[in-house]
Amino acid sequence: MSFTVAIDGPAAAGKGTLSKEVARHFGFAHLDTGLLYRATGLRTLDGTDPVEAAQALQAADLEDADALRTPEVAQAASRVAAVPEVRSALVNFQRAFATRAGGAVLDGRDIGTVICPGAQVKLYVTASDDVRAERRHKELTGKGMDVTYDAVLDDLQQRDARDSARATAPLKPAEDAVLLDTSRMSIQEAVAAAIALIEAAQG
Ligand code: CDP
User: Fold this and answer.
1) Does 40 contact ligand 1 (Cβ within 6 A)?
2) For residue 90, which of 49, 46, 34, 45 has the smallest C-alpha distance?
3) Ligand 1 site, residue 34, Cβ cutoff 6 A
4) CB neighbours of residue 47 within 10 Å
5) I need a labelling partner for 5 at 20 to 30 A (CA). Which of 48, 67, 99, 197 fits?
């Protein structure tokens, strides 16, 4: 039996950490769908066509986490993510992952709305712009990246605006998603809230 947890929300809201912890707790597989768009975006930086880049994506392209985490690649990801043919090239892989036996957590922007509308649990994770920029700035500088707080804030705000305004699969909560504002929550509190919701859905 498959059991799917969909975790969506704006940039750097804490979806990644939350998803990893939840997946670990329940023994579910985890897919960070942002990596698919980041890897596609990275390939377009040398002029490759976005649709061809998405169609040619291989598992190995998702492995170089540091190269995929830069703000430049994040911007490229958000641009290619607005192309309907890029999104459709990535649908089957995500749906197959979501329905694998043993349970799966997918985090992204359109998991609860488009990729897995039948997910057993849907969470929409947010935090204030300031909190998100601070967390992401700390994460990137912790990896030795030379970025300012203002540049990080700019990246998040630009991507959120583009991701929310696009015609195909825009960033928005599913009607039946549970909203989780983590601005004043520790990661442990957010994880505990998500675990309680999933346990309730498991019955
Ligand atoms: O980690 P962060 O929240 O900053 O971003 P991400 O989840 O890695 O996603 C990078 C970009 O990919 C987003 O800004 C979106 O434009 C796009 N994306 C998307 O359109 N749909 C998804 N399911 C996941 C990411």
Assistant:
1) no
2) 34
3) yes
4) 6
5) 67
Best residue among 36, 109, 131 to mutate for probing ligand 1's pocket (most ligand atoms within 8 Å of CB) is 109
CATH 3.30.450.20 correct for 4-202: no
Token reading at 152: 């990080």
Instruction: Fill in the amino acid letter for 115.
Output: I
Pocket test for ligand 1, best of 20, 159, 171 (most atoms within 8 A of CB): 159
Atom 7 (ligand 1) nearest CA: 34
Calpha distance 115→198 (Å, rounded):
19
Q: How far is the CA of 26 from the centre of ligand 1 (A)?
A: 24
- CA dist 121 and 3 (Å) reads 9
The letter for the amino acid at 144 is: G
Q: What is the pLDDT along the chain (203 residues), one digit of tens a residue?
A: 799 999 999 999 999 999 999 999 999 999 999 999 999 999 999 999 999 999 999 999 999 888 999 999 999 999 999 999 999 999 999 999 999 999 999 999 999 999 999 999 999 999 999 999 999 999 999 999 999 999 999 999 999 999 999 999 999 999 999 999 999 999 999 999 999 999 999 98
Q: Which helix (H) or strand (E) holds 53?
A: helix 50-55
Name the β-bridge partners of 32.
107
